[in-house]
């Protein structure tokens, strides 16, 4: 089972994950997409990745704005699984934006 990262390890991960912040026991990123269908397409792609890894984000969908919250429930905090998923979400968002 993945273990909680230390505060220092989380800070180092956040330095690489520029669009993410820490909120207590979770990594959080807000993403603004141009439209609702594009936001849902990002959610669907992230859902595929989450299923394949058996590691699932909390996702808030409000029109074309998404907020992802990543935490490892079984560990009670942030683990390497959350850092990996954050990077993968960044990749999905970049592709959706054509970057
Ligand atoms: C049984 C299943 O493997 C577990 O419930 C998985 C599913 N997805 C999960 N997702 C997250 N974010 N944390 C978990 O601890 C977790 N556990």
TrEMBL record:
Organism expressing this protein natively: Actinoalloteichus hoggarensis
Q: Does the keyword Lyase apply?
A: yes
Principal EC category: lyase
Pfam family of this protein, just one? Pterin_4a
The molecule here is called Putative pterin-4-alpha-carbinolamine dehydratase
Q: A GO BP term, please?
A: tetrahydrobiopterin biosynthetic process
GO MF entry, a single one: 4-alpha-hydroxytetrahydrobiopterin dehydratase activity
| Chain segments annotated as transmembrane | none
The record, for InterPro entries, names:
PCD_sf, Pterin_deHydtase
């Amino acid at each position: 089972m993945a273990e909680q990262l230390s505060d220092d390890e989380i800070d180092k991960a956040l330095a690489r994950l520029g669009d993410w912040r820490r909120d207590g026991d979770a990594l959080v990123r807000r993403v603004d997409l141009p439209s609702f269908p594009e936001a849902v397409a990002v959610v669907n792609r992230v859902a595929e990745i989450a299923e394949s890894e058996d590691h699932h984000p909390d996702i808030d969908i409000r029109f074309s704005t998404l907020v992802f919250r990543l935490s490892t429930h079984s560990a009670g905090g942030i683990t390497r699984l959350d850092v990996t998923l954050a990077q993968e979400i960044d990749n999905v968002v970049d592709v959706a934006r054509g970057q």
